Amino acid sequence: QLQLQESGPGLVKPSETLSLTCTVSGDSIISSSHYWGWVRQPPGKGLEWIGSIYYRGSTYYSPSLKSRVTISVDTSKSQFSLKLRSVTAADTAVYYCARQAVAGLNWFDPWGQGTLVTVSS
Amino acid sequence: QSALTQPPSASGSPGQSVTISCTGTSSDVGGYNFVSWYQQHPGKAPKLMIFEVTKRPSGVPDRFSGSKSGNTASLTVSGLQAEDEADYYCSSYAGSNILLFGGGTKVTVL
Question: Is A55 within 8 Å of chain B by CB?
Fold first, then answer.
């Protein structure tokens, strides 16, 4: 059974870089049918797609975050990672990682449990 | 690209049906059959309920159904149960490798 688990600091200072890792277990991260994506949810608000990566390294980012985001993958560790630069309080959110369909960036399933990242000095 | 438009809330009594709309444009919802719906209970991760407009993943009750007409997709929950009370989000492919989410709808079972 495929499982995803986010990890990383829960507190980041303004202007610094938010870094999270998602570890995939129960199945291979090497899949021709899937991307691996990041979605965030500010407290009390809706979902926002951040970006996605293919196991070979090709990436797709939300236009609104593209200038500050880098997603990378390490297939040897079954992990993919998110870096968000120059964070502000508006980046405070629960960050989820999830497996995503390739066709039309279609669906996310399953999701990790999510990790709350707070941006504060 | 703007977020897809969902009503903030919807409600129904147990056993009744509730339908949630997700309105986009011809560049997203209307242009592709890549609409998905997610259910999210408080403090939990979202759960995929419908993908590719009408398809249900294994394990999702057939009380949940999806449809699309023009630039608006809809999720219908029939035979409402207390456990269906949750937030529901739609998403749609918007071309050029971009994905959009709706703002979410809180469903209350009266």
Answer: no
